[in-house]
Amino acid sequence: MAAQNTPMRGHTRRPSTSAHAGKRAPVQPPKLNGYSYVRALGEGTTAAVFLYEQHGTERQVAIKVSRGRLDPRAGARFRTEANFMAKLSTHPYILSIYETGVTDDGRSFIVFEYATRGNMKDLLDHGTYGVDETLDIGINLASALYTAHRAGIVHRDIKTSNVLISDQGLPALADFGIATNIYDHRATGYSLPWAPPEVLRSQGGGDEKSDMYSLAATLYAMLAGKSPYEYGYHPHTQQELASAIMNRPLPALNRADVPEEVEHVLARALSKNREDRYYSVLEFAYALQEAQQHAFGHATPVTVEGVERFSRALTRQQAAATAAATGALGAGMPGAAGASAAVNGASGAQMRRGIVIASSIVAAFALIALVVVLVVLPNIDRGQSSSVAVVNPNATASQSTNADTGDYAGSAVVPGPEALSGSIRGDSAVFSWSNPDPQTGDKYSWNLLDGANSSEAATITTDTHVSVPASPGAQTCIQVSIIRADRSMSQAVPVCATR
């Protein structure tokens, strides 16, 4: 990390949200077949993380273990969420999962990739990040988060301690709601500094735009050294901090090297009114990308399968640069031909002078073209990721009801199902939904979300209703997505049937 050398100003530890956090007995590392215990890494309210070495490969891994024996439904949720994260961990900026299981004494565990450089929270204790690197990391994390959102997963706990740094210095988003505070040595019951106003006002448990807010707060902390309202108002209590988040204006970043456009992008993602934020995390990534291009002359590509790697504005710039290079080469050739014709009837000295002039013209145009092709175009496509997105040829630009959404390229936004309902009828749970924008070839993907009955694979249907065996508990839940003929997919929408 190319962190600035200046230390964090006025850094204080966050107060613990649990009065009994220090009295809780430490979690004991379990004995696991195929692994040797090395040391403890961190502990949270529901789980602890330990460093182990895998037999045979001698690879070090981080293993998260639940604090105690989980009841069957909680254990099923633990494993189901691990399965979700395992599906997402193919993304280069999401922490990889290798294995899940249950210890001999009944505790659930998950085997993770070990991020040797720790978490961003600890790194910020030694200094803030540069602006360009912050934008680069922000675009990469937004790519990971948007990938999760498309899979119907909301993180709900994005913060500096949940951004891990790999051997290669790349960020990896961790802890998708499985337990809190992976690698975090200061256990807390919830993440107040990063929570958006609507969550603090108990207006729901958080959604995609809440995740966007928390990601923007994390990027702000990379530049400021701490979360926005801790940085700006130095609250002494949690109540003061919560009040500032809900009621006081966003503090300005007191860094002369942060361009105004970067502050504007972060401020919009941190809007107190969720409707004033960007339409999606993808659009937030594109806005960061454009700010990076304007400030530094290059842009980190978005790494999301099926969407454009650059915003529409940057794509237009790239097309214009290509056209300029082509035009320059084309303009140079007639000039050379004309000059050649002119020297055919000239004297020897005039002929030599004409050849030199004509050659200079062609060389000048060729040099301009080479500069555009070899310098301008590669810089617009520079980034840490070497992944190439699979572009959907049928995709159109994302649309938003907000007037100020920017001009972005990407896959068409597929609306989620609406009017979802569920009811228990005897031993069955019956669900129905509607398609707000039906198109030829539309299908629907659904899967169970209810404890031990959670299904790993989704079921595809052309119907707008489904009946499943009811869970023995109080409710049975599924999530539903719309799938277009071109394989683009909406975000998953949950619905529950309650007894």
From TrEMBL:
GO molecular function annotation: ATP binding; protein serine/threonine kinase activity
One Pfam family hit: Pkinase
Q: Where is the Protein kinase domain?
A: 35-297
- Per UniProt, where does ATP bind? 64
InterPro entries xrefs: Kinase-like_dom_sf, Prot_kinase_dom, Protein_kinase_ATP_BS, Ser/Thr_kinase_AS
Entry's transmembrane regions: 355-377
Cited PROSITE patterns: PROTEIN_KINASE_ATP (PS00107), PROTEIN_KINASE_DOM (PS50011), PROTEIN_KINASE_ST (PS00108)
What's the protein called, per UniProt? non-specific serine/threonine protein kinase
Q: Which organism is it from?
A: Bifidobacterium gallicum DSM 20093 = LMG 11596
